[in-house]
Amino acid sequence: MVSEFSVRAASVEDAPCLAVAERETARTPGLLRSTPAELSDVAFATRIEQLESPGMRGRYLVAVDARGALVGHALLDPMPLIQCAHVFRLTIVVHPGHTSRGVGRVLMNALLAWASEHERLEKIELLVRSTNARAIRLYESCGFVAEGRLRRVIKLPSGDYVDDIAMAWHRIEQ
Ligand SMILES: CC(C)(COP(=O)(O)OP(=O)(O)OC[C@H]1O[C@@H](n2cnc3c(N)ncnc32)[C@H](O)[C@@H]1OP(=O)(O)O)[C@@H](O)C(=O)NCCC(=O)NCCS
After folding, report:
1. Ligand 1: which residue has its CA nearest to atom 33?
2. Is residue 60 within 8 Å of 75, Cβ to Cβ?
3. Domain count of the chain?
4. Residue 1 domain-assigned?
5. What is the residue-averaged pLDDT of the chain?
6. How much is the pTM?
7. Residue 74 near ligand 1, beta carbon < 6 Å
8. Ligand 1 centroid to 101 CA: how many Å?
């Protein structure tokens, strides 16, 4: 099936829009690790510059709809230490109002296609809140497996705790 969404490399000009969408997402407790105040436009621009600069240390993609409007973003960020340089960290956020319409799958497919071709990348890691069934189902369907549980690592404004699940994708197992 042809998706109504397409994917392109992020540009620094996208940063304010991505930051707004992620801050809005972060207003719902239990989805992201960050709170809205911890997500600055500058940090988004810096990350895009780092990952999409010539030589491409990693990958920072955005999903756009048929009109070119941004509907999601996802990135693979390599770990800095030499002995972990084969491991990349994944982040994905489909923008509010656009979830459960296939955007997440389009972004994951594009990132994993890039990962499969990247000479250094062997493993992708992510952390997902244990209560985020939608995200866990997407990751499992893309070949990610649970590798551990970080108990009571998130403390919500309500005072309730949430665990994180550490999941990973190993190229050798795909
Ligand atoms: C989690 C997230 C990335 C999934 O992307 P999405 O665009 O909403 O999901 P898609 O429509 O592409 O669906 C992909 C899969 O996710 C799962 N899924 C999607 N919507 C779901 C829902 N409402 N309930 C349960 N599972 C759901 C299904 O397994 C689905 O596969 P299928 O269509 O073959 O059944 C997206 O919802 C999101 O960014 N949410 C807010 C931020 C967040 O939770 N980020 C992840 C932090 S670790």
Report:
1. 102
2. yes
3. 1
4. no
5. 96
6. 0.96
7. no
8. 8
Residue 58 clears pLDDT 90, i.e. is over it: yes
Q: Does residue 111 have its Cβ closer than 6 Å to ligand 1? A: no
Give the closest residue (by CA) to ligand 1 atom 42. Answer: 93
In a domain, 133, yes or no: yes
Can you give the pLDDT at residue 3? 81
6-29, pLDDT tens digit by residue? Answer: 999 999 999 999 999 999 999 999
Evaluate whether 9 touches 60 at the Cβ level (below 8 Å): yes
Task: Say if ligand 1 is within 6 A of residue 21 CB.
Answer: no
Give the domain range for residue 155. 6-173
Question: What is the whole-number distance in angstroms between the Cα of residue 7 and the centre of ligand 1?
Answer: 17
